[in-house]
């Protein structure tokens, strides 16, 4: 059994944003030399997410709009968490909805996706560096 661990760092210019990280994750898988196994990708911050979906700009815009409806950033007083001096109560809830991590099978050295599937980093409280763990396990 072989293992490979890499960290990706992202700093989004806005509070919220989505970054397609599929090619970066595939590069890590390829470099690992692992042909058959699993790849774990997880956000290492409680206001960020990793998820799989279609790389279609309309869908990403829909996510932005939908998430803001179910957990609006303002009014800041809406969230008890913000009474601690923070302003990101909404970001914690958005992350909970979008998820922390994904696991993708590796077959013949490639991420083994269904049609249209891509890996995204979702940021809900950006403008500072945040890490994503990529752990590849297999033979």
Quick take:
The protein has 139 residues and is α+β, with helices and mostly antiparallel strands. The protein has three helices and eight strands.
Characterize the structure shown.
By secondary structure, the chain is of the alpha+beta class. The protein has one domain (2-55, 93-138): Jelly Rolls. Helices cover 25% and strands 38% of the residues. It contains 3 helices and 8 strands. It has helices at 22-32, 57-70, 89-98, and strands at residues 2-10, 17-20, 36-43, 48-54, 101-107, 110-111, 117-123, 130-138. The strands form 2 sheets. The protein has a 5-stranded antiparallel beta sheet, covered by helices on one side. It has a 3-stranded antiparallel beta sheet with strand order 2-7-4, with helices on both faces. The longest helix is centred in the middle third of the chain and has 14 residues, at 57-70. The chain is elongated and about 50 Å long. The termini are close together. The model has no long low-confidence stretch (mean pLDDT 97).
């Amino acid at each position: 059994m072989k293992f490979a661990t890499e960290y990706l760092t992202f700093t989004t210019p806005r509070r919220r944003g989505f970054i397609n990280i599929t090619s970066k994750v595939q590069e890590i898988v390829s470099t690992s030399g692992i042909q058959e196994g699993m790849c774990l990708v997880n956000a290492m911050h409680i206001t960020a997410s990793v998820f799989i979906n279609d790389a279609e700009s309309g869908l990403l815009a829909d996510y932005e709009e939908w998430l803001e409806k179910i957990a609006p950033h303002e009014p800041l007083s809406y969230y008890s968490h913000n009474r601690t001096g923070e302003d990101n109560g909404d970001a914690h809830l958005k992350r909970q909805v979008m998820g922390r991590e994904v696991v993708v099978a590796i077959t013949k050295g490639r991420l083994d996706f269904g049609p249209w599937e891509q890996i995204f980093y979702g940021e809900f409280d950006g403008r500072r560096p945040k890490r994503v763990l990529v752990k590849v396990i297999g033979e």
